[in-house]
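Quick question: what would this complex look like in 3D?
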Amino acid sequence: MRWRRSPSEPRRGRLRVGRWLFATFAAMIAATLVYALYPRPMPQTQAIQIREPQLDLERLRAVAEFAAIADLDQRSIALFEEAGRVIQHPRCMNCHPRTDRPTQTDAMRPHRPWVSRGPDGAGEPTLRCSTCHGATNFESSGVPGNPMWMLAPIEMAWHGKTLGEICRQLLDPARSHMSREELLQHMSEDALVGWAWHPGGGRKPAPGTQAEFGAIIKAWLDTGGKCPA
Amino acid sequence: MSYAISVNGQVHHVEDDGQTPLLWVLRDTLKLTGTKYGCGVAQCGACTVHVDGTPTRSCTLPLEVAASARITTIESIEGVEAQAIRGAWVARDVPQCGFCQSGQIMSAVALLRTLKTPTDRDIDVAMSGNICRCATYNRIRAAIHDAAAQLGTAR
Ligand code: FES
Ligand code: FES
């Protein structure tokens, strides 16, 4: 019986393993070098494409679509309910708060930072809306803007009101401060109202267009300006 | 495009896109790094500068709009209110990390220029757009009262 291998055997075995290890190592280094040194184009500066968020635009029904409602009062109410989709949209509601503070976002949460309407609706004298809001939307910061940026007077608060209550409030000159003609003009031509359809910053615009909205308001007034219950 | 922009009483000619926020121009182009970048979205007030004397967030003011105005930054704010605020800030050791402080000071100086003796509520209203991560609010408020009192006795 042999207790020991002859001294030459294991050495030969070790040598063979060593050669294999060396070959694998060399192959790995060669592969890494080929990978690292393989010529490939340098990254170039490129303009970033501004991706317009895919907003599902909601359309407003055309005035003609209401002609089928024979009863004039019912048609008038239906027209106002369609207009209500704009009136009660966050883009409009956010600046018709029932407190001194505007709301913001689709969730209509309190405006951050804390701001207050001040004496003229455009902020406190020491913290004006224009501290942050410029004459146009600013895409870099996402802050919306308009030259007339301000809150609706408190008598025109819409938060917490039903559509019927908003309707009667709109028609009451004591609270809306507007005749029917002025109301129509406000809805269809006012530039700050028009912002609701061009809110920028990935915000969802009000349904339809301001012109379509104005046409619905006109048809509603022409049919007697009836209000939902 | 090239814009001539008046900052701290000096006209600078800068070559930048008109939609660049003024804050970028101040810090990167003019190297006026006293004005801080906190959020870039008008939420913190760290970037407050005076535009024709009115406190304004420079992160949300495009260069093309700023170019027609007189801009004052923390580097050159001066006058009795600024001196009083500086003294009160030092005496009360207001800053902690300091990051928000240039914005706080720009708003505080503007407040004292509008209201000589602001109440706590006046201070809250005027300063609510300036966030301090270190919560130095109590010292800020006390220092504004100190500065107002000091201006009152000086007058
Ligand atoms: S950086 Fe301008 S408000 Fe925060
Ligand atoms: S001192 Fe640190 S954020 Fe105001």
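Answer marked as accepted. The longest helix of chain B spans residues 137-154.
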